[in-house]
Design goal:
Layout lengths: L6 H22 L26 H51 L4 H46 L2 H10 L1 H13 L2 H48 L6 H40 L4 H11 L6 H13 L4 H11 L1
Length: about 325
């Protein structure tokens, strides 16, 4: 057994070993963090059991949840168009925010940067429309005038005649047309559809104005909106929430700018191909391709299919060359 003089030294050594073992355990069991700095999930960790609720409390919470769901459905069905306009305006503002921040980094104040950006966008859009509207008006008028000839040439094309011989498409089409005009309710629905299209066009023009005004407002107020949103987070988490907000808004803005660039390149390729191949109404179809290209993933495909259908009027060779080059 150790002597009384050696007991304090042994106790100090034991304490030192315990401290070293705890330090080593802390180093070896440091929780891993992912790319965003969040703690990694431990699959071996047993989650805390969910506390049981009183039946009355459970029923009350369920009633509140159903009420909130019904309220959200009511809002979406009655002001869904307004929510859509707000979302589009917010995406436009986030897409233009990198340009505004670049101008601010060069010494401009944010109001001047917002004003310069919006004037630049409006000038580009106005110049583009001033160049393309006369061509569009001419081609739309020509399309309406030449529509019977185009349809006749399409119906008399060699490949359609061969298909008609095999499947009797013309006879089926005549039967469907006669059946349609023999139904008075169908004709009434057509006139109702025309009125509906007129209302849709008017609503779309009003929506464009609302989106433009909201985009300017969101672009000018984006720092204030971010600051207000950060105030909703706990004080200890605001710095982290601010970093995530900056990364999210930057990612969304870069995505919108990238989608606009893709739409421009998509319509440029389509215009070059249609000009080389001699496809009619190239300007009108280019505008259609540019609008559809803003739809992620499927917009460009739909535009390519629609233009390919138009190129069928020039023969199957053109209808084969265009999609091969385009896609």
């Amino acid at each position: 057994p150790p002597s009384p003089a050696q007991a304090p030294a042994n106790a100090e050594k034991a304490s030192l070993r315990r401290r070293l073992s705890r330090r080593l355990a802390a180093i070896l069991h440091t929780p891993r963090r992912d790319a965003l700095g969040e703690l990694a999930h431990d699959d071996q960790e047993v989650p805390d059991p969910i506390p049981a609720l009183h039946p009355i409390a459970l029923g009350f919470l369920g009633t509140i949840g159903v009420g909130l769901a019904l309220g959200g459905y009511y809002v979406l069905t009655n002001v869904g168009a307004l929510i859509t306009w707000i979302a589009i305006a917010l995406f436009i503002a986030l897409g233009l925010d990198p340009v505004v921040r670049w101008m601010v980094s060069k010494g401009l104040s944010r109001p001047l940067a917002v004003t310069a950006t919006m004037f630049g966008i409006l000038a580009l859009f106005g110049g583009f429309m001033a160049l393309i509207i006369p061509t569009l008006v001419t081609q739309i008028t020509s399309f309406i005038t030449d529509a019977p000839t185009i349809i006749n040439n399409f119906l008399n094309s060699e490949w359609l005649v061969q298909i008609d011989r095999q499947y009797a498409l013309t006879q089926r089409l005549d039967d469907e047309v006669n059946r349609f005009f023999g139904d008075s309710g169908a004709i009434t629905n057509v006139f109702g559809g025309v009125l509906g299209v007129s209302q849709t066009v008017a609503q779309s023009m009003f929506g464009i104005l609302i989106v433009l005004v909201l985009a300017i407002y969101f672009l000018a107020s984006l720092p204030t909106i971010n600051a207000f949103g950060l105030r909703l987070a706990p004080r200890s988490k605001r710095e982290r929430a601010g970093e995530l907000a900056v990364r999210i808004t930057s990612s969304v803005g870069n995505y919108v700018m990238g989608q606009a660039t893709v739409a421009f390149l998509n319509s440029l390729v389509a215009l070059l191909l249609m000009t080389i191949l001699g496809v009619p109404f190239a300007a009108l179809l280019t505008l259609l391709v540019a609008v559809l290209a803003f739809i992620p993933l499927v917009g460009g495909v739909i535009a390519g299919i629609l233009v390919t259908l138009v190129t069928l009027s020039l023969g199957w060779q053109t209808a084969l060359i265009y999609p091969l080059c385009y896609f």
